[in-house]
Amino acid sequence: MSKTVNQNQNLTPGESAASTKKISIPEKAGRTMFQALRKTKRLRGKRIDPFGQTVERKLERELIESYRDLITTIDSKLTESNYDDAVAIAGLADQVRG
Question: Domain ranges in the chain?
Answer without folding.
Answer: 8-39, 51-98
